[in-house]
TrEMBL record:
Originating gene: rbsK
EC assignment: 2.7.1.15
Modulation of this protein's activity: Activated by a monovalent cation that binds near, but not in, the active site. The most likely occupant of the site in vivo is potassium. Ion binding induces a conformational change that may alter substrate affinity.
Biological process (GO), any one: D-ribose catabolic process
Origin species: Rhodoferax aquaticus
Keywords: ATP-binding, Carbohydrate metabolism, Cytoplasm, Kinase, Magnesium, Metal-binding, Nucleotide-binding, Potassium, Transferase
Lineage of the organism: Bacteria, Pseudomonadati, Pseudomonadota, Betaproteobacteria, Burkholderiales
Protein's UniProt name: Ribokinase
GO molecular function, one term: ATP binding
Function: Catalyzes the phosphorylation of ribose at O-5 in a reaction requiring ATP and magnesium. The resulting D-ribose-5-phosphate can then be used either for sythesis of nucleotides, histidine, and tryptophan, or as a component of the pentose phosphate pathway.
């Protein structure tokens, strides 16, 4: 079983020609609301990856924004451990999606900040816990410490970007971050290879957007070029990667296979609008994998060079 402990938001999404610059007003077009939040998105991705029981610890307000989130998680067969806040509203995110599929996101955490150390359920039966940084850092650190003490594999998606306490990192088995988050975590602006040398964690996975991903796992480097797709909305692509990766690893998949599954799922998430609504099923991921050739030597060399590994 996997426990995802983290954030859940209701996303307010507007499509526009481009993302506004500071001080600029942009006329949008379509407006929709979608269940989102990094934690909830990753829980849905884990559950949809198939063959793994996924639970989620989350905090919601006592308001009209909570039921759509709960319904989406339940529809994905995620088992809920809900903390109900009467003092804070359900978390929200305001997202502008441009015609070239880029996005700008502002999050109002609300009830997500109500999650505390004492809310962690019993970890008996769980193989992995997956967390993010949209809940209080001290809560994340407490959960990691408790899980590590009980031999539960600790996976942390270090997003949004911030410096991480050394004590927290010591309890993390799998660290997942993008390039900006890698720089913030290491406080270093060098190559990906140089930044990886500064993190003392058994497994570090760096997502690289349309380029793919790079991982250092038990001293070995693995590269996975991205699957080519026509993007519509990149919201939740990274969350989909995280949830799928941890689900694959919980099944006992080897790191190269887990990276390939996660990359395929993340690519497919870019082809639909919204967060949880864009997360693919296990069958959709399997279909893409079956129809895709292995990464070419040229693509691997290009990715290796970009990461500063050549």
């Amino acid at each position: 079983m996997i426990l995802v402990a983290g954030s859940a938001n209701l996303d307010f999404v507007v499509r526009a020609n481009h993302i506004p610059s500071p001080g600029e007003t942009v006329l949008g077009r379509d407006f929709k609301t979608f269940p989102g939040g990094k934690g909830a998105n990753q829980a849905v991705a884990s559950a949809r990856a198939g063959d793994v029981s996924t639970h989620m610890l989350l905090a919601l307000g006592d308001d009209a924004f909570a039921p759509p989130i709960e319904a989406s998680l339940a529809d994905a067969n995620v088992n809920l451990h809900t903390v109900r806040s009467t003092n804070e509203p359900t978390g929200t995110a305001f997202i502008c999606v441009s015609d070239d599929a880029e996005n700008a996101i502002t999050v109002a955490p609300g009830a997500n900040h109500s999650l505390r150390a004492e809310h962690l359920p019993a970890l008996v039966g769980f193989s992995h816990i997956l967390m993010q940084l949209e809940t209080p850092l001290e809560t994340v650190a407490a959960y990691a410490k408790a899980a590590k003490a009980q031999s539960v594999t600790v996976a942390l998606n270090a997003a949004p970007a911030q410096a991480l306490p050394a004590e927290l990192l010591r309890n993390v088995d799998i660290l997942i971050l993008n390039e900006g988050e890698l720089a913030a975590t290491t406080q270093h602006q060098g190559s990906i290879a140089q930044c990886l040398e500064r993190i003392d964690a058994p497994t570090v996975v760096v997502t690289l957007g349309h380029r793919g991903c790079c991982a250092r796992h038990l001293g070995q480097i693995y590269l996975q070029p991205a699957f080519p797709v026509d993007p519509v909305d990149t919201t939740a692509a990274g969350d989909t990667f995280c949830g799928t990766l941890v689900a694959a690893l919980s099944h006992g998949a080897a790191m190269p296979d887990a990276l390939r599954q996660a990359s395929a799922a993340g690519a497919l998430a870019c082809t639909k609008l919204g967060a949880q609504s864009s997360i693919p099923t296990a069958q959709e991921v399997a279909t893409l994998l079956a129809s895709s050739a292995p990464a070419s030597a040229e693509a691997l060399t290009e990715l290796k060079t970009y990461c500063g590994l050549s």
